[in-house]
Design brief:
Layout: H1 3-6, E1 13-17, H2 22-33, E2 37-42, H3 45-57, E3 63-66, H4 72-85, E4 91-94, H5 109-137, E5 140-145, H6 158-178, E6 183-190, H7 212-220, H8 233-240, E7 251-254
Parallel strand pairs: 1-2, 1-4, 2-3, 4-5, 5-6, 6-7
Helix pairs in contact: 2-8, 4-5, 5-6
Bound molecules: NADP nicotinamide-adenine-dinucleotide phosphate (NAP) and D-gluconic acid.
């Protein structure tokens, strides 16, 4: 097989969770560009409708479903409906996620549990729902959207870091348990990406200056910029394609080099 077809997703059905916008949307757009049929879900009908319209603007006929990925019954029903209406899922991207930035000792157990539920329990639930058909089909790709917080902590993100650290190990476990069925499970660890999720960290200050955290990330990134959601498309296509059939249990960090760099000294 030549390298061109190796990276093709022609004939593949890709489900990207929480992909009405943001990183999920960018990954789905890139996969569509490689030939995949795109299926996505979001928690609200209005967001699914907005997503379908946004994909259409990009020339993509996406299949949208309303589903809360933390609800196992709803997820199983959605996967069954997708298999009936679109086809067996060849590629799953567990992208849906939330963050709550609260100092740990001020965080309620309820808030902590909600982050763990969406960011860790849901990837378990959705992966469990799609793996049986992948086994029957003889192949499958699962891509978990991890984070730099799969490796590092910082103030106010205890629940998120715990979830994303767990997601790294869930990735490795799925790879270990289902590799013999030609299912590859890998993670993508984005660095700091300019999406609605990080908008509070980039808000302009009253005096028009950059948010302190924004300045911090710029100084910590060799490229001196935040990542764009589109920066994740190529790595996702690679991990969804036959080109990565012997890559399993890996977390591919797409962070602009933050983890390699001590950071620019303040001028
Ligand atoms: P985002 O802009 O907040 O989008 C998250 C998406 O997930 C939204 O469409 C959201 O839908 C959906 N979602 C949330 N809870 C859901 C649920 N229970 N069921 C179904 N969908 C749900 O976030 P993003 O920046 O694109 O991040 C996407 C993923 O990348 C997340 O897993 C995040 O942790 C990870 N990540 C982000 C960055 C970054 O810098 N942005 C870096 C590393 C990793 P609603 O709008 O309806 O809530
Ligand atoms: C934060 C950010 C990060 C990013 C991302 C980094 O508050 O530190 O939201 O968590 O979202 O996960 O990889």
């Amino acid at each position: 097989m030549d390298n061109k077809t190796n990276f093709s997703l022609e004939g593949k059905v890709a489900l990207v969770t929480g992909a009405s916008y943001g990183i999920g949307f960018a990954i789905a757009k890139a996969m569509a560009g490689a030939g995949a049929t795109i299926v996505f879900n979001d928690i609200k009908q209005e967001l699914v409708d907005k997503g379908i319209a946004a994909y259409k603007e990009e020339g993509i006929t996406a299949h949208g479903y309303v589903c809360d990925v933390t609800d196992e019954e709803a997820v199983n029903a959605m996967v069954a409906k997708i298999e009936e209406e679109v086809g067996v899922i060849d590629v799953l991207v567990n992208n849906a996620g939330i963050i709550k930035r609260i100092p740990m000792i001020e965080m309620s157990a309820k808030d902590f549990r909600q982050v763990i539920d969406v960011d860790l329990n849901a990837p378990f639930i959705v992966s469990k729902a799609v793996i049986p058909s992948m086994i029957k089909k003889g192949h499958g790709k699962i891509i978990n959207i991890c984070s730099m917080m799969s490796e590092f902590g910082r103030e106010t993100v205890s629940a998120y870091a715990a979830a994303k650290g767990g997601l790294k190990m869930l990735t490795r476990n799925i790879a270990s348990e289902y590799g013999e069925y030609n299912i590859q499970c890998n993670g993508i660890g984005p660095g700091y990406i300019a999406t609605p999720q990080t908008a509070p960290l980039r808000e302009k200050q009253p005096d028009g200056s950059r948010h302190p955290f924004d300045q911090f990330i710029i100084a910590k990134t060799p490229a001196g910029r935040w990542g764009e959601a589109s920066d994740l498309g190529g790595p996702a296509v690679f991990l969804a394609s036959d080109a990565s059939d012997f890559v399993n249990g890996q977390i591919l960090y797409v962070d602009g080099g933050i983890q390699a760099y001590i950071g620019k000294q303040p001028s």
